[in-house]
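Q: What changes when adenosine-5'-triphosphate is included in the input?
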Amino acid sequence: MLELNHIRKSFDGTPVLHDISLRVEDGEIVSILGPSGCGKTTLLNLILGLTDADSGEIRYNGEDLTRTPMEKRGFNIVFQDYALFPNLNVYKNITYGLKNRAHLTSQQEVEELIDLLGLRDHLSKRVDQLSGGQKQRVALARTMVMKPRILLLDEPLSALDGVIKESIKDRIKTIAREYHLTTIIVTHDPEEALTLSDRVLIIDKGTISQYARPEEIVHQPKNDFVRKFILNQLEIKRDNIYALFGRPSVAAAV
Ligand SMILES: Nc1ncnc2c1ncn2[C@@H]1O[C@H](COP(=O)(O)OP(=O)(O)OP(=O)(O)O)[C@@H](O)[C@H]1O
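A: The predicted holo structure follows.
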């Protein structure tokens, strides 16, 4: 279990995160959701170890990691821009991290990941020959071969469109389930968060507005911010579709 206790963070004297406490169970998918500038990336970086908290505590399975450097935490992140190596082919990108740490993952496990992420036909391609969705899958595979104890994803779907987005969503869910891997995802899209996660952490100006299962957020929004920012956005999307195509008839909906 990952535990954050009373985390506070300021930049240049301006508080960005105020007293954040939460628990993430092993194998859970948790989305961090909120508007631009609310502190999502800062929170992700704190968990990763890229940024230090001003105060508070981060624990994983009881071990205090608050002052543990990033490389010793065993967490791993897929950045928004994928950060792949343009001069290496797909296979070399995936296995790059194993160069000096081959013991981490067997050849068979690498092959399983390649198949799980549907990359078998692309292994000899250069990164610039790939679509956005393919790049995202390579970035996921490359991170997974390092056997992270927690997988962190920064806006993994924001650069992808419709069908590809759904397929990457499914792959993320499959990976989390198959590997029983705790997965923490930053997003600003309520639909993404509600459909992808076991629990959603809604942040408003550096504080937790609600941390709950998607159904609870939809049926029992805790406050006006959740109602207005999160649920309103979904209603606007739905109403835009209805305005364009009309409401589905009751018969069609059944
Ligand atoms: N290194 C930094 N130095 C100074 N201020 C920072 C730094 N990193 C973030 N901030 C500020 O902290 C606040 C939260 O930033 P953060 O990137 O965590 O927000 P976010 O919710 O991820 O936003 P977005 O969705 O736009 O990426 C912002 O006001 C930002 O300007």
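Observations recorded in class: The pocket of adenosine-5'-triphosphate is lined by residues 11-12, 16, 34, 36-42, 188 (CB under 6 Å).
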